[in-house]
Structures are given as structure tokens and as C-alpha cells.
Amino acid sequence: MALYIFSDAHLGAHSEAKESEKLSKISQLCELIKKDGDRLIILGDLFDFWFEYKHTVPKEHYQVLFLLSELVRQGIRIDYVSGNHDFWLCDFFETQLKIKVHRDDFETNYGGKRFHFIHGDGLAAADWAYRILKRIFRNKFNIWLYRKLPPDFAFAFARKVSGSSREHSSKRDNGFLPDYRNYAINKLKDGFDVVVIGHLHIPSYEETANGLYINSGDFIEHFSYVKVTDNEITLNNL
Q1: DSSP E strand stretches across the chain
Q2: What is the DSSP letter of 84?
Q3: Going by DSSP bridges, is the β-strand pair 224-228/233-237 parallel, antiparallel, or unpaired?
Q4: Among 86, 173, 182, 215, which residue's CB has the most CB atoms within a 10 Å radius?
Q5: CA distance 34 to 113
Q6: DSSP letter at 60?
Q7: Helix-, strand-, coil-residue percentages of the chain, each rounded to 5
Q8: Smallest Cα–Cα separation from 63: which of 86, 46, 83, 41?
């Protein structure tokens, strides 16, 4: 059996053709998981924007929700680590899809190895401004206020803001690579065997003296994913 990990599809962010390509690749990955997988970890930013009202969720994502629901029905465990574009996950995934949501980092054992997972937004020392915004965006009162907006307006406004944020991040994240590596190295020194981070959209695989550091890349251009079995850990592309 195998554990699969992927991140950063940013569904809803691109052209119709690119969205179709992303959904096709996610469907291919789900077929691979059905063959030999028993667990899937989504390491954040599956959606470019996700927000739940009491009786409303974004309808444009029903196809990927159906694919995930199929995996759960086949007995595959799914964990969802929220990222910086989908941290407004409420109870829909856990109550309706039976997918466990982790708000920040997440630790687990698999195949005799100890894993540390984190999406990675705000890890870099220079990203202090984002860390302030993160506290504001995740404030329960601010979430309550945003939910008072009509859904059509709230989603359209959020997509515009999300697009600007993504363009800014793409120019800056290459400079964050050393900070992310240092974070992983420190976690490995703390006793973890494998550290997996997303967010940067840059696939990487590094064996260190204390363990393995992987960045899962993205499902936009690289279509990269991690596969873990009892015998090996690989970073792959579809």
C-alpha cells in the first residue's frame, strides 16, 4: 500500500483550458491512488479560494469533490492541511466528505517513518507582513463579518484579491528557498524522518544527514506528487 501527497492546484485560478487540464491530472492521480493507495494527504491550496457559508459552498468545485468522495468511499483515508488560499475551511470536508482537516502543521507515522507536513505559508523570516495578515484573516470575528456578504460578491471579490496575492508570491518565493530548507533541517534534527512542505510550487527532493526534505511542487505546471511505500519515497510527475 502507499501514501500519496500533492498540493497547490489552485483550482479556479486559471483559464478554462488550464482548469480542465488540472482536473484531468487530479483524476489521473486518483486512479493511481485507487490501485495501490490507502492514504492521501492534500498539502494545501487545492483551491485558489474556498469559503463556506452555512448552506453554501462553491459549486464550481463539485467535480474534484466527487473524486475525493469516491476515494473515501473506497476506504482511502484523506487528510487536508489548509494552505494560505483555502484556510477558511469550516466543517464541510469533515462532516460531508469525512476528510480530516488540519489547520496548520500535521504529524503522522507511515511505513515506519515519522513525517512532518506543513503547507509552508509564512515560514520565511522576510514574510513578516503575511504573518500579520494571516492573523487578521483567520480571526473568527473577521470571518463572521465576511460571511455577511452575499456569496456571489464575496467569491468574486476574493478571487480578485487571491489573484493579486498569487502574482506577488510568485515573484518572491524563490528567495524563500533557504528558509524553507532550514525549517526542514531543524525538524529533521528534532527527530522526524521526512519533512514535506508545499506552497513554493517548486518540486524538490533532498536527502540530508538526518532525513529527507521534500517540497511537493504544484499541480499547475509540474503536476508533481509524492508517493510513499514501505520500500521507498519518490517525487513523481504526471
Answers
A1: 2-6, 37-42, 77-81, 100-102, 106-110, 113-118, 194-197, 204-207, 212-215, 224-228, 233-237
A2: S
A3: antiparallel
A4: 215
A5: 23
A6: G
A7: 40, 25, 35
A8: 46
Q: Which domains does the chain have, with CATH numbers?
A: 2-237 (3.60.21.10)
pLDDT tens-digit map of 62-120: 999 999 999 999 999 999 999 887 777 778 899 999 999 998 899 999 999 999 999 99
Asked if 3 and 41 touch (Cβ cutoff 8 Å), the reply is yes
Looking at the predicted structure, is the pLDDT value of residue 126 above 80? no
pLDDT in tens, 88-99: 777 889 999 999
pLDDT at 166 over 70: no
pLDDT for res 129: 60
36 residue type, one letter = D
Band of pLDDT at residue 121, cut at 50, 70 and 90 = confident
Amino acid at 83: G
CB 45 within 8 A of CB 11: no
Asked if 81 and 42 touch (Cβ cutoff 8 Å), the reply is yes
Task: Report the pLDDT value the prediction gives residue 171, as an integer from 0 to 100.
Answer: 44
